[in-house]
Design brief:
By secondary structure, the chain is mainly alpha-helical. The chain has two helices and no strands. It is rod-shaped.
């Protein structure tokens, strides 16, 4: 009887060890998944900033062509919009600092 009881204890001990290893493996798997998901967010952010950079370069090129053509009214309008945007951003950011 004692032999069966010691084997049962040994089985329970091994089962507990196995359970802790499975839990650790599950934790590692979840961490890998979270890391992969955050990498996807980083990659998509890089794409957004690359598209923004391309768009800004195109807009700057168009503004340069417009300025070379001598359309002074349009250049003054754009300059006014830029100054207005800077003032509004400065005013908005003043609330947070």
């Amino acid at each position: 009887m004692s032999d069966a009881y010691s084997r049962e204890q040994q089985n329970n001990s091994r089962l507990d060890e196995l359970s802790s290893k499975v839990s650790a493996l599950r934790g590692v798997t979840v961490n890998i998944y979270d890391n992969a998901r955050s990498q996807d967010v980083i990659d998509s952010s890089n794409e957004v900033f690359a598209n923004l950079s391309t768009s800004l370069k195109g807009s700057a090129g168009r503004l340069g062509r417009m300025a070379q053509q001598g359309n002074k009214v349009a250049v003054l309008k754009i300059a006014g919009m830029i100054v207005g945007t800077v003032v509004v951003l400065w005013w908005i950011l003043g609330f947070f600092w």
